[in-house]
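Researcher: Before we compare anything, I want clean individual predictions. No alignment, no superposition, just each chain on its own. First chain goes here; please echo the sequence and then give the C-alpha cells.
Model: Echoing the first chain and its structure:
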Amino acid sequence: MASRSTKSWTSATNRRVALLALVLAAACSQDDGPYLEFLGGGFVFNYRLAAADYGFVVKRLRRIPGGTIVEARLEDPAGGAPFVIRETASWDRLEYVFRSPPVRGVRAGRDYRVEVRLLEPGGRLLATYARNFRSDVDQEVLPERAPVVGPGHQPAPR
C-alpha cells in the first residue's frame, strides 16, 4: 500500500506533466506566421534524355485548413504562360513537391520566378509565397535529341 506522501508526490508529478504537455501543445500550434517555407529546388538537366525541367519543395510550417488548394506557378523559360500545378492540402502532409514539365529556353544567370498560392475552398486567396531559381548553365549544353535509348544505353537510331 502506498503511503500518503507517495500519493501526493505522484499527483503533483502528474499535474506537472499535464501542464508541460499543454504548454508544448500551445507552442506547437502557432496560428500566426507563414503556412509554408521553401526547402529547396532548381533545374535538372538530363543529358541522357536531352531534357530539362525544374521544381521545388515547400514544407508546411503550420496547419493548413482542410480543402485548401496548394497552387504552384512556375515561369516558362520559353516565355509562354506559367505552368500551373494544383494539389489539395492534406492534414497529414508535411511537404509538397512541384515539378515542371520538360522546358526549353533555360539561360544561365537568369532568374525564373515560382509562386505558391494557398486558395481556400471558396477560391479566396489565403497566402502567397514567391522565390526565384537560377540556372548556372544554358540549356544549349543538352544535345538536340537523346543520345541513347532504353535502360542499356544503346545508341539512339539515326
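Researcher: Okay. Second chain, same rules.
Model: Second chain and its structure:
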Amino acid sequence: MVKCPVKLLALRVEDVMIKKVHTIDAGFSTRYAARMMDYLRVSSLVVVSDGRIVGIITERDLVSNIVAKACNPEKTLVKDVMSSPVITTRPNSQLENAIKYMLTNNIKKLPVVAGEKDEELVGILSLTDVARLHPAIYAKLLEYQNDLQLQVNTKAQQYIL
C-alpha cells in the first residue's frame, strides 16, 4: 500500500468542513435543484426525505442524467438522479483518512453527520474547500492519489498483458 506523504496529525474533518449545508427534498424536480444550486452558487445539494439524508445531487448528476440524456428537468425528480446511498463521515474523523477515501473513490463532496444514528447533518467536506483552505495539504494528497493511480494502472497492465 502507498503511504501518504503528509500527516495531518491533529486536523479533523470538523476543522475544515463547511457548516452551512444546503438540502433539497427528494421529491423536487431536477430543474428546481439546478436553479437552487445556481442561486446558492453551490455544486451540490444533500438530498433529504422525511428528515433523513437519502442522497446527494451534484452538477455532474444533472449533466449526466438530465442534459446528456435530454430528459425533461421539470418532470424528472431529484430522487431519480441523485447519488445514493450517500457516503458520510463524522466531524471527529481524521481529515487525512476522509480525503484519502474521497480521492480513492472519486468523491468530491462528503456530508458530515453526527448523533447516535448519524441522523444530524452538521456540515459537508469538499475537496474544493480543502484545496482552497489548505493548498499545501491538497497538493501532497494529489501526489498520493497520483502514486496510487500509478500503482493501480501497473497492476491492471499485468492482467492485460
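Researcher: What stands out in the second chain?
Model: Residues 29 and 110 are 23 Å apart (CA to CA). Additionally, Residues 152-161 have pLDDT under 50 and may be disordered.
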